[in-house]
Hints:
Elements: E1 2-8, H1 19-31, E2 38-44, H2 51-60, E3 63-69, H3 77-89, E4 120-126, H4 132-135, H5 152-160, E5 164-165, E6 169-171, H6 180-199
Parallel strand pairs: 1-2, 1-3, 3-4, 4-5, 4-6
Helix pairs in contact: 2-3
Amino acid sequence: MKKIFVINGGKIFAHSKGRFNKTLLELDKEFFTTDQGYELKYTDINEPYNLIEEVEKFVWADVVIYHFPVWWMGLPYALKEYIDKVFTAGHRKGLYRSDGRKEANPAINYGTGGLLNGRKYMTTTSWNAPETAFTLSGEFFKQTTVDDGILFGFHRMNEFVSLEAMESFHFHDVEKNNGEEQVANHTANYLAHLNKVFKA
């Protein structure tokens, strides 16, 4: 059995009801079934959680999947709080031993003290911004990809605990262009991505 841990980071706040990321979690539940050789655990950051239990989920998992919207060019505050608290609780309890440096030469090897070797993570993000905001010359994100730009620090964070990145998937134009057809397209594209990444 391949062990999958999904984190729903779709914070319910202001006009955001978190429905899109909850839909992704429901798709995960349908895809990662025992019949298909998977065991699934998940956390919804809108619900209470126990820090040690969350650390244990990371240690247990073969693959961690993060779902979250990008708010003001970063993580939703509740997801950032979750990560700050859980990763801190995981110090020398399975997530990371140290920052990786040794006293003999503290100038090198920063970020090599992670303990989650052999495990992977996959990221999905949802955006109000259209994909062209990242790809067209003169547009807002200056032709910088989501992963190389806004998520650079997020990916470094996961590598700090020795998680290996799988191919990300990003949903664009979700807020202003969210009719039934668009949501159906997002759903089909996400399922195709899961099949590509997990069943290739």
